[in-house]
């Protein structure tokens, strides 16, 4: 894990999850359905990349996504790995400028500013959960580790409730006996941990 490293371990791990997942997708699998029922794997990647660029743009004042991340076209401007890497590099570079004790970091999600640790967690949550979406859509194992899931759950519990009003996350699913940390996070985000393409 050497590409686009930052001092933020949670972001590094989330980016690695997305990177590893994207690299393993076969060309013919980019049109497969995903847990995001309206989007295929390409559209989820566009959304995930757009969100990373959005976080970077809010921090640096630099470029914002070229299209609406919530209305992905399904047509990539470059190869999938290139799209993912460019977005993650922008995000990692931006977060590398933020000190850990920064209290107000501009972010593209309500309420518009967050502490550094919460904001970078929000950015990591987005990358990691969409890595999972693409992974399960294309027959890969979950890229989420229990440790990462625990860290991201602490973030999700703080930021997701207001985002549900904007349609960014579905309603939480009921917890099930035997859920591990990964399953608990996915259910909280409205995802079925056992989802498979039908």
Molecular structure report:
The chain is 51% helix and 2% strand. It is an all-alpha fold and 198 residues long. The chain has a single domain (9-188), classed as dinb family like domain (Four Helix Bundle (Hemerythrin (Met), subunit A)). The chain has a two-stranded antiparallel sheet. Strand 1 (105-106) and strand 2 form a beta hairpin.
Which short descriptors sum up this protein?
single chain; 198 residues; mainly alpha; Four Helix Bundle (Hemerythrin (Met), subunit A); two-stranded antiparallel sheet; 6 helices; 51% helix
How much β-strand is present in the residues? under 5%
Summed up, the domain count is 1
Question: What is the CATH level 1 assignment?
Answer: Mainly Alpha
H/E element sequence: HHHEEHHH
What share of residues is helical?
40-55%
Overall form: globular
Count of DSSP-assigned helices = 6
Report on the biggest sheet: 2 strands, antiparallel
Strand order of the largest sheet: 1-2
What is the fold named in CATH at topology level?
A: Four Helix Bundle (Hemerythrin (Met), subunit A)
The number of strands is 2
- CATH homolog superfamily: dinb family like domain
The average pLDDT value, as a whole number, equals: 95
Q: Give the radius of gyration.
A: 15 Å
Distance between the termini: 33 Å
Specify the CATH architecture: Up-down Bundle
Low-confidence stretches: none
Structural class of the secondary elements? mainly alpha
């Amino acid at each position: 894990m050497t590409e686009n490293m930052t001092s933020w371990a949670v972001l590094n791990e989330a980016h690695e999850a997305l990177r590893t997942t994207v690299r393993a997708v076969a060309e013919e699998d980019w049109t497969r359905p995903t847990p995001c029922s309206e989007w295929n794997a390409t559209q989820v990647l566009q959304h995930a990349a757009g969100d990373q660029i959005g976080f970077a743009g809010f921090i640096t004042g630099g470029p914002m996504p070229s299209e609406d991340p919530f209305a992905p076209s399904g047509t990539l401007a470059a190869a999938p790995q290139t799209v993912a890497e460019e977005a993650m590099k922008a995000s990692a570079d931006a977060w590398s400028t933020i000190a850990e004790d920064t209290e107000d970091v501009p972010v593209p999600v309500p309420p518009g500013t967050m502490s550094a640790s919460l904001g970078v967690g929000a950015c990591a949550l987005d990358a990691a959960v969409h890595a999972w979406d693409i992974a399960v859509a294309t027959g890969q194992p979950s890229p989420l580790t229990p440790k990462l899931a625990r860290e991201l759950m602490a973030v999700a519990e703080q930021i997701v409730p207001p985002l549900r009003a904007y349609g960014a996350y579905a309603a939480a699913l009921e917890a099930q006996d035997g859920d591990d940390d990964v399953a608990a996070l996915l259910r909280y985000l409205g995802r079925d941990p056992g989802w498979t393409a039908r």
